[in-house]
Amino acid sequence: MLRRWGSEENKKLADKAFDLFKGSQAWRAIPLFQQGYHDAIRHRNPAIAWWFLNTSAGAHFKAEEYRQALDEYLAARDMAVQAGLDAERALTLANLSSLYLHVFDTASALSAAEEANQHLGRGTNVAVRSQVLVQLGRVLMLRGASDKAEKYFKEAIESVARSHDQQSISAESSALDQMGWEMLQAGRLQRARTSLLRAFELRRGRKDPALFVTEYKLAVLNLVTGDLTRARQLIDSSFRGSDPDPVQIPLHQFYFTRAQILHGQGDLEGALHDYIRATDAAEEWRGRGLFADSFRIRTDALLDDIFSGAVDCAIELYRKTGRERYAVLSWELNERIRAASLHDVLTEGRRWTEHVPVEYWALLDRLRALDAEQLGPGSASRATLQQAARLRMHLAEMEAHAKSAVTVSDSLPPKAANSTPPKRCKECIVSPEKSRPRISLTHFKHVLGNSRTLISFHLGARYSYRWIVSGRTFEVTVLPDKRALSEQIDRLRALWAQSSAEAAPYSQRLFELLFSGLKRSAHNRWYISPDAALFKLPMGALVCGRLKGTPVYLIERQTVELVPGAWAIGSEPQGLHKGGFLGIGDGVYNSADPRFRSQADTQAPAQARAKAPVQLPRLLSSQREIEECALLTGRPLRILTGIRANRQEIVTALADRPQVIHIAAHYLTGGPAGGVAIALGLRPSANGARLDILTPEDIAHLRAPGSVVVLSGCSSLEGEVVPAAGLLGLARAWIAAGARAVVATQWPTPDDTGQLFVRFYGYLRESARGDTMVPAEALRRAQIDMIRSHSWRSEPRYWAAYQVIGRSN
């Protein structure tokens, strides 16, 4: 791209900075880029200012300073827009998409890449066009649109192959390299081999410094196809020929790949050494990442692969050598990554909300409206989906910037920018002997004491594992793989739904598989940290024995509570805080409801005749359910029904810190990302009517410290299970908002009178008389009452749907 530097000094500055940027000292280039940017601004040269700012962002990216990179890319994008620089705008958006993809936010990456493609003109530089098309192909491939992605890759390669200058050859090899990698990730191995070998030939012929990148990818290809000898040769060559460049290949990926190769070759000690280096580098990389929760969750999914490999290797060494230190290390590694993103949300506080612009809340409200449209009848339009994706991207950007501002302001004393190079080299990674996991088994056993037991699960592709930890006990057991356990859980759920006679014996076999060897006692509370398909299994409904021919369920012998991880368990169980009862229910769900017409007439008469986007039946019994439950708590009451069942009223009520929040509403699935949202009711809007909803990301912005949240409705516990992040959805969102426990349902239940909740609140009230009864124990007793009711409520398909997930710290 032609640039008029304005002076020979500027040209020399740019050349010097760019030479540093291309080498291993990108951090040294940043002050030079910033100097050039300010000089260009002073001389009112927006094209040159854009170049310095965009390349400075790239240097931050290469130095793993992702928050600064995000800020500068956004500023460069806005500068290009204001100056009418379409090609520059497209290139910055492609770079921004690459940053999003680096932290596995594919939705934001797609929005940025599609917007970049829209600003490619006929006169756009061939290399820039190729970069934009390749980036769009990468994102589409990761999102499963492989045919469409391949079209963009081929277009990029063909556009540069017609030119024969050095820049075009470099762009062609880069496009082939990226295409081969994405084909490899998609399992299209022959196409991957063809593209990567061609890239390898071009880069080796030119003595391209980026040859190590293609060598690394070919090493992964050979690892996948089983040629471990060739894979080892390639990874060693890639190590020798590279300086750390996290934009091309994050350092943890280097170590992870070599660990897998060594593991496959039987060198367990060498593999564990590299696995530990990979976990240390990965956590450092994650700590430099963007603050938005959506970024963190997707990052956790990648880190789970690395930590899972380390856990597998540690347990294999334990079984081979009998040394308990390997078993302990496997547990500590598992807990280091367990629900780390949720832990971060809880520990960072809410100060960042003071740093977001006013526009943030307006955009969040608009996103809520778009999400509600996706919950309506039929599928949402492509325009709606794209607009929602763009809004999520902009909100995540604002959130990351605001949280970054809080972190910077909390750093005392502040460091001079780029005063020292970041410690990023192969020799800097901590050795396995010096690695210190966040959670120490010795300390945690002291926290648990002798009256509580943690049972952690990890489900893997080859094996699964169960750890039992208490004040006196530590043991690890190998279980069947993830697929086998998932099939058994699905089978049991189906048998429960059918009230089949096979359910009890099948349930007992699964209990013996998962919980063999554990002593059951109502005086010993079980905390269970599940994984993958285990989130779909109501543990308390497993049959643990028989009494006079009648099945005995685990819940009859044991208090069971799900927790996100060991970090969520405090030293002592705590009673409920002092506060009132907040009940929400019997909302206005259809335009035929007289309460809706009355509201519409008040706000805008013409809207009374408007057709609502979603027509749902009225939940007539929900008001009675809420009132009965409220009276049992013996607490000050606030009940929101009818038109008052809306988000604004809820936000106002939360300011009083209610002890209990009970929401009896419609829970709609299939909306944003296939998740679940709370439908509060209809309200008039400029377009006729709008469904007022609470989505998980919306709930996470609320404040409910120490509250018990009860989600009374069909499948309110549903959500995507993301490796390492755990169960997403409403339960996680309320815990992120500060709730100590969430009671929700795993599948639809037919009870319109809420008998289980009536018993639950009766038992929970005991904590108001000085007892430290926890929500899990109150739910357990209510479920036992249902089992012994000798009615249709005795069957697991009713009472087992209710589950509590929480934390005691």
Overview of the structural elements:
The strands form 5 sheets. The chain has a 6-stranded mixed sheet with strand order 9-8-10-14-17-18, with helices on both faces. It has a 5-stranded mixed sheet with strand order 3-2-1-4-7. Helix 1 runs antiparallel to helix 2 and helix 21 packs antiparallel against helix 22. A hairpin with a 4-residue loop joins strand 1 and strand 2. Helix content is 54%, strand content 12%. With 809 residues, it is α/β, with parallel strands linked by helices. About 5% of the residues have low confidence. The radius of gyration is 28 Å and the shape is globular. It contains 30 helices and 18 strands.
Detail the topology: elements first, then pairings.
Elements: H1 8-22, H2 26-42, H3 46-62, H4 66-83, H5 86-102, H6 106-118, H7 126-142, H8 146-161, H9 166-185, H10 189-206, H11 211-225, H12 228-240, H13 251-264, H14 268-287, H15 293-321, H16 324-337, H17 340-348, H18 358-374, H19 382-410, H20 441-448, E1 452-459, E2 464-469, E3 474-479, H21 482-497, H22 503-515, E4 525-529, E5 543-547, E6 550-553, E7 560-562, E8 581-587, H23 594-603, H24 620-633, E9 637-642, H25 647-654, E10 660-664, E11 666-669, E12 676-685, E13 688-694, H26 696-699, E14 708-712, E15 721-722, E16 726-727, H27 730-736, E17 741-745, H28 755-764, H29 775-787, H30 796-799, E18 802-806
Parallel strand pairs: 1-4, 4-7, 8-9, 8-10, 10-14, 14-17
Antiparallel strand pairs: 1-2, 2-3, 5-6, 11-12, 12-13, 15-16, 17-18
